[in-house]
Amino acid sequence: MRIERLVVMVSGGGTNFQAILDACADGRIGARVAGVVASKPGVYALTRADNVGVPSVVISPKEFENQQAHDEAVIKAIEGFGGQAVVLAGYMSILGPSLVSRFPIVNIHPSLIPSFCGKGYYGKRVHVAVLEYGAKVSGATVHFVDEGTDTGPIIMQKCVDVLDGDTPDTLAARILEVEHEILIKSVALLCAGRLELLGRRVRINPES
Asked: Would residue 208 count as lying in a domain?
């Protein structure tokens, strides 16, 4: 199924969100961002949305009594935007089963899953852990979201060498470039209807 309307969920500055906006604008992604859902007010990703006239809404998990109530509010917002698929671009809150099962949802994670992922591994914490462990490579992973944390089927990965003088910030900066690259490619394939899920494996089908 081809997808024409994306909803992006954000929690921070939105550099991956900007990469998606740019790719939609220049045709690398054959869809448009129909709306943005933020987990908290005041984040710069909301300014990015305003700058290009993309409607947005803030839905804070802490304002709901339980996960189900939060997810119902998010589903209503996505449907209100006419969204057909969801991209998590630095979104830091948990999604429950009703939401995960309602839409195809893609996430970007700053490591090579299944390493340095799961509960507690997010943002700079990932890169600190990679360096403390002494890993020689890290990278980024785009995956479908399921009911676990960073456990969904992998769409695309790319390695980044860990250099001797790396700090969490320098490693994060190089991995961020890779995040932009594979997130755009993965979302483009999703929107073109070229991703096929076979158990835990994701097959990329040729252009029809």
From this structure: no
Outline where DSSP puts E strands in the chain: 5-10, 32-38, 56-58, 85-89, 105-109, 137-144, 154-161, 195-198, 201-204
Under a CB-based contact definition with an 8 Å cutoff, are residues 15 and 58 in contact?
Answer: no
Instruction: Pull the structure tokens for residue 24.
Output: 């939609």
| Chain segment 101-149, per-residue pLDDT in tens | 999 999 999 999 999 999 999 999 999 999 999 999 999 999 999 999 9
Q: Is residue 193 part of a domain?
A: yes
Give CA–CA dist 178/157, Å, rounded.
9
Q: How many structural domains comprise the chain? A: 1
- pTM assigned to the model: 0.95
Which residues are CB-contacts of 208 (< 8 A; sequence separation ≥ 6)? 193
Residue 206 located in a structural domain: no
Tokens representing 144? 């479908």
* CA neighbor of 37 nearest in space, from 89, 101, 96, 111: 89
Instruction: Please give the Cα distance from 145 to 118 (Å, whole number).
Output: 12
Residue 58 sits in a domain whose CATH number is 3.40.50.170
Can you read off the two tokens belonging to residue 164?
């001797």
Q: Which positions are catalytic?
A: 109
Q: Residue 59 is encoded by which pair of tokens?
A: 């839905």
| Amino acid 145: pLDDT | 97
Concatenating the DSSP letter of every residue in 4-21 gives: -EEEEEESS--HHHHHHH
Cα R_g (the chain), whole angstroms: 16
Range of the domain at 164: 5-201
